[in-house]
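Re: that backbone. Tokens:
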């Protein structure tokens, strides 16, 4: 569904068709009286008497043969994320009722200065409108046209680019996660990332040969059973005039995860196309930062591999030497994401010397058992960084919950034959021991946070701001984190 938004100063009195107005909580008409005639107001109030106890936030009714009114009830002091969710709810409403052309009287909302209610409302509506249907042979192009009537606030004008950048970044992430494994394999993924250069990003692709030469045997080992290549790709944005150290964002990009020789069960294996969601968030974030010309320096680093069984596949019991020089005994080839991140994290830290690093990965099923699809798991070596991420998540309703790291967990990952092993055979604390493993590859004590987004990246059911499938979780979270603390 395509949503087109037009801005106009047209007088409401000339508008007919489907008209939406915002009202105070419980559909009080106080806000709308200046936009309605006395007869219209009286008629609306009569209808609303019958809806006194309704739990709905949005109602519609025919005013006459030519005009349908939609009333949107808004509570006082809504948070920004509440306004976006209301916009998403409005999208569902107009889709359900097959409204194609809607005029929204922007002046009927009485929000406090600085909140940019209309901007956030439309932002939520657009995020909800996303669909991935490029492989359907019968496409019906549906367009919803929204005319915003009223003078735009200076803040709304300023935020236009910000919301556009966020939408494009989030949709790019969703597109990547939604692609099937036969289309978006590592070779194709690397090619698509090179196209980001047109936004002013510096993109460097390290192919399998270069990765081997650099000593990234942990990353390369994961992909050696596939006929596709393995890659490390760096995406740099230099938006600050100063030569400040960049913010580092690292993503796991396992384009399809069969589990390798430690083969997964067949049921639901088709969902493993989204095992590259961590990398897609990093990519969407970098595109967003470039479009809105963020005044920061940042680098995104993604490891792109395909984990397949085959004659050359990595075996359980293999020992590999990582980029850091530390050796890893691979006891289970389905614990592959941490091997990719191990090399990517150390490489990012050594090459770019970032002021902080945040990695994202659909790393463990244990985090879904722990937090479901409400929170991403947060692990960190830095309290300040953790709080910054937590606060940003609360603002945009992409929530995180911090879980512990402790040296006592290290013994569960120590190996008799190498410096460490890639799984905890004792059992328990699956997400924590995975994060504890990653922490060993932060060599220079850089402030670091790990976000396990396995429960958040993909949803079988629709969420507040998505229609089911790839959610794009993380792009808005990290953009808010950057905005609040580093711009």
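Recovered sequence:
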């Amino acid at each position: 569904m395509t949503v087109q938004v037009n801005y106009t100063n047209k007088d409401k009195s000339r508008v007919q068709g489907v008209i939406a107005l915002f009202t105070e909580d419980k559909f009080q008409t106080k806000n709308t009286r200046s936009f309605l005639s006395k007869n219209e107001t009286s008629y609306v109030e009569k209808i609303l008497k019958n809806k006194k106890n309704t739990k709905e936030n949005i109602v519609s009714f025919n005013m006459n043969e030519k005009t349908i009114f939609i009333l949107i009830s808004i509570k006082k002091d809504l948070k920004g994320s509440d306004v976006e969710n209301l916009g998403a709810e409005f999208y569902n409403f107009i889709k359900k009722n097959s409204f194609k052309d809607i005029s929204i009287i922007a002046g009927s909302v009485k929000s406090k200065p600085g909140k940019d209610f209309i901007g956030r409302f439309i932002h939520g509506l657009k995020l909800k409108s996303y669909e991935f249907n490029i492989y359907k042979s019968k496409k019906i192009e549906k367009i919803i046209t929204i005319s915003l009537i009223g003078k735009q606030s200076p803040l709304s004008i300023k935020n236009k680019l910000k919301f556009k950048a966020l939408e494009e970044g989030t949709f790019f992430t969703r597109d990547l996660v939604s692609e099937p494994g036969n289309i978006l394999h590592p070779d194709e993924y690397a090619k698509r990332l090179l196209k980001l250069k047109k936004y002013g990003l510096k993109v460097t692709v390290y192919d399998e040969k270069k990765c081997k030469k650099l000593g990234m045997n942990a990353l390369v080992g994961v992909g050696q059973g596939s006929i596709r290549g393995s890659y490390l790709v760096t995406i740099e944005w230099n938006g600050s005039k100063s030569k400040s150290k960049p913010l580092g964002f690292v993503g796991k990009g396992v384009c399809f995860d069969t589990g390798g020789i430690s083969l997964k069960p067949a049921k639901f294996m088709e969902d493993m196309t989204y095992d590259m969601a961590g990398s897609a968030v990093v990519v969407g974030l970098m595109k967003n930062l470039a479009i809105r010309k963020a005044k920061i320096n940042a680098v995104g680093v993604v490891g792109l591999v395909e984990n397949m069984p085959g004659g050359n596949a990595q075996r359980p019991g293999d020992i590999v030497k990582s980029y850091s020089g530390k050796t890893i005994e691979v006891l289970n080839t389905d614990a592959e994401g941490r091997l990719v991140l191990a090399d990517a994290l150390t490489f990012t830290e050594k090459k770019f010397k970032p002021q902080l690093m945040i990695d994202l990965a659909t790393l463990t099923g244990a985090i879904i058992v722990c937090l479901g699809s409400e929170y991403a798991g947060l692990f960190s070596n830095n309290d300040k960084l953790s709080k910054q991420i937590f606060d940003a998540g609360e603002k945009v309703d992409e929530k995180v919950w911090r879980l512990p790291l402790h040296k006592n967990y290290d013994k569960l990952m120590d190996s008799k034959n190498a410096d460490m092993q890639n799984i905890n055979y004792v059992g328990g604390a699956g997400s924590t021991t995975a994060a504890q493993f990653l922490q060993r590859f932060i060599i220079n004590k850089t402030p670091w946070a790990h976000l396990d987004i396995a429960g958040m990246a993909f949803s079988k059911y629709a969420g507040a701001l998505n229609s089911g499938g790839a959610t794009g979780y993380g792009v808005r979270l990290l953009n808010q984190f950057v905005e609040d603390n580093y711009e």
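Residues 2-152 form a domain with the Leucine Aminopeptidase, subunit E; domain 1 fold (CATH 3.40.220.10). The mean pLDDT is 93.
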